[in-house]
Design goal:
With 391 residues, this protein is of the alpha/beta class. It is 38% helix and 14% strand. The protein has 15 helices and 13 strands. Strand 12, helix 12 and strand 13 form a beta-alpha-beta unit. Helix 8 packs across helix 13 and helix 11 crosses helix 14.
Length: 391
């Protein structure tokens, strides 16, 4: 931090929605914990051992949800309790509150005079934009009950944005949502992609032959993996699916022999799968989307649905590059098997246009050190301005 003397050291609280696994949000949280190891970390619930050692070693405080028997089996069923749980944290005495939020974390009660910065992954996806994608398979009566609570949650969510002094969005896509739903401006700092994380690239994993197309995804409805399955059933090309989730059994049942599933794999195997694939298939809409950046890190093009974060991370064939690099992917405009297969055909006709060096250069824009530096400078600046304005 920017400090005039040791007495000026601020007390920092980090608030994260929940700790149940190392996904994209937790990769950002890990950097926050590295920057502020003395901070108090508060979260709705914590499944011990589910996150990295950097996070586990923090002083972690949980809400009353932690003590509900069986909470980890399906904690999202307790969504109506999240506002009360996040507001139960006592933040008195903290100077800076950094909320790491895609759900309720930004709604904590902020003491008067404290600085609240929210690193926002998105306004609640299931409340504002993707209700049908998340809950389409539920019984109609349960859907109505969920919709009732979602409307209440949306009203609470609108009110809580007033507790935030500064929003940081993970993409311009999310910045636009913050403006649309909260009528607030946001700065953009892209999340980190650990460029050296996976290793691999030696061709040692022989579970599949090279030249396949690849999906790396949770197998849940809004990821739209079923769209890719239907497309590859039609085109007969090899598709490797890395991931698991609630849709896994259904997807396997509808898949032809040309589609293979691995479940989740360790970093080394994932690096091999990236290295040996022909291109990544990305059929869903994401707030940012770390997986397309990881694929480019391995010099692999991305065939993606033309909405969401990929519009900021993938340079499309025939379009102007955003980073000075060459083309790094192909977009398809409709979420249909026909549109996806047309994009695959376009990719194959122009495959030599994709230069691995350019793909890697584009991915390097999102490296972890860059994120760490930008976040630190941002918080330093806002604290310094707040400190000067209160003197």
């Amino acid at each position: 931090m920017v400090l005039s003397n040791p007495m000026d050291i601020p007390r920092i609280a980090i608030i994260h929605d929940w700790l149940t696994g190392m996904r994209g949000g937790e990769k950002c949280l890990e950097v926050f914990c590295e920057l502020f190891p003395e901070a108090s970390l508060m979260t709705l619930l914590h499944k011990k051992g589910s996150v990295s050692a950097v996070i586990e070693n923090m002083e972690i405080r949980t809400s009353f949800l932690q003590h509900i028997p069986g909470i980890f089996k399906d904690y999202r069923n307790y969504l109506p309790l999240f506002p009360g749980a996040i507001e139960s944290f006592d933040l008195s005495g903290f100077d800076i509150i950094l909320s790491s939020s895609h759900c309720a974390a930004k709604g904590a009660r902020i003491p008067a005079g404290s600085l609240h910065i929210c690193y926002c992954y998105t306004p609640m996806r299931y409340a504002w934009r993707f209700f049908d994608e998340y809950f389409s398979s539920e019984h109609p009566i349960k859907r109505k009950l969920i919709a009732f609570f979602m409307n209440r949650l949306k009203r609470w969510d609108i009110l809580t944005n007033k507790k935030v002094d500064y929003f940081i969005a993970i993409s311009h896509n999310v910045k636009d949502r913050i403006n649309r739903y909260y009528s607030r401006d946001a700065d953009v700092i892209y999340p980190p992609v650990d460029i050296g994380r996976y290793g691999g690239g030696c061709g040692e994993n022989r579970a599949v032959r090279s030249g396949y197309y690849l999906i790396v995804s949770a197998l849940v409805p809004y990821k739209m993996v079923d769209l890719a399955v239907r497309a590859f059933n039609a085109n007969g090309k090899d598709l490797l699916v890395v991931g698991s989730g609630s849709e896994e059994a259904r997807l396997k049942k509808m898949s032809g022999n040309n589609i293979m599933y691995t479940g989740w794999v360790d970093d080394r195997d994932l690096g091999e799968y990236y290295s040996n694939c022909r291109a990544l298939i990305f059929p869903g809409e994401e707030d940012f989307g770390i997986v397309p950046v990881e694929a480019q890190m391995y010099g692999k093009p991305v065939i993606a649905y033309a909405r969401g974060g990929v519009l900021e991370t993938v340079n499309p064939l025939g379009g102007p590059p955003r980073s000075g690099s060459g083309c790094t992917g192909v977009y398809f405009r409709e979420q249909t098997p026909v549109s996806l297969n047309e994009a695959i055909e376009e990719f194959e006709k122009n495959e030599t246009s994709f230069v691995p060096g350019a793909l890697k250069d584009n991915a390097s824009r999102f490296n972890r050190d860059r994120f760490k530096t930008e976040i630190k400078l941002y918080i330093d600046d806002k604290w310094k301005n707040r400190d000067e304005n209160t003197k």
